[in-house]
């Protein structure tokens, strides 16, 4: 199972036969002891989980740790898994709980978002000088300011609104899926999202 | 359609995730406020697109699979709980306390019963030894025996 680089080139056996299988059915294979099925799910949801955790936690290293914890919890829960709900709903519920707990536990540790031209870009790992060669230094600084503002404003939203926006905007989840994960009605989710985007519209107006 | 109904659809409309129904289009044509708000939502969505996530590190899979292997190597069931130091210590303390309480209670019961009651089975070797042990002072004072009357039937049939 530890073939990190080879995995991308050689899909696990289950991947070749899973085109007709739903994720829940693949998870039932994991439950039955098929490790290649678990590997398939990791490959499929690794990037979405990392993206989700990065935006929830605002830190690339923490996001990796949290994403790994999500998959570990999936693996630990394999024997108790029941395909009663959609696999992604279950997965995002685990991820949301972890992210919210992490935010609660580190509420007093998070530093203020600052823009520094000397430190590497948290997103790209590159310094401003080489962040985007097509932009001038001034444009790069403005871009970084916009990024900081976006992060800060999204982070400042109430926890449920923030989670809903990240799921809707960045994970391309529809109202029904978000409602299932957050255990809300579809109507309440629509209302939640409208209020969140309305807040962002007002607060980010100067950057538009 | 009412403006509030349009509001609920606005996130999907602005994100381009949902095609506007004819009724929505009709409302947007006739309501400048909703049309303006939708346009601003679209601009906000475009701004949010700038927030990109980093690519996963090259060691993500390696680290994850190593942790999964560790997970598999862990003992299953209640033995796994024993690996948690706090739980193991609590369990040990609980066991010691239970044993101590049991022994104290058992000793108390025996002493409560008095010297003769300590004899488990009168006439058995164990019972006699326990009686001797518990009533050493009584039996060492043989003067007490002088007060006893000799039974007639014993002398009559030696």
Task: Please supply descriptive tags for the structure shown above.
heterodimer; A: 208 residues; mainly alpha; disordered N terminus; B: 158 residues; 11 helices; 0% strand
Please give a quick description of this structure:
The complex is a heterodimer of chains A (208) and B (158). Chain A is mainly alpha-helical. Chain A has 11 helices and no strands.
How do the SSEs of chain A run, as a string of H and E? HHHHHHHHHHH
State mean pLDDT of chain B (0 to 100 scale).
78
Question: Could you give the count of β-strands of chain B?
Answer: 0
Mean pLDDT of chain A: 84
**Total of DSSP H or I helical runs spanning 4+ residues of chain B:** 11
Task: Describe the fold and architecture.
- The complex is a heterodimer of chains A (208) and B (158).
- With 208 residues, chain A is an all-alpha fold.
- Helix content of chain A is 68%, strand content 0%.
- Chain A has 11 helices and no strands.
- Chain A has helices at residues 4-9, 13-17, 23-31, 35-57, 60-76, 87-105, 128-131, 137-156, 159-170, 175-182, 186-203.
- The model of chain A is unreliable at 1-11, 112-120 and 124-130 (pLDDT under 50).
- By secondary structure, chain B is mainly α.
- In chain B, 72% of the residues lie in helices and 0% in strands.
- Chain B contains 11 helices and no strands.
- Chain B has helices at residues 3-15, 22-30, 32-48, 60-73, 78-82, 85-112, 114-117, 125-134, 136-140, 143-146, 152-156.
- Chain B is elongated, with a radius of gyration of 45 Å.
- Classes of the chains: A mainly alpha (208), B mainly alpha (158).
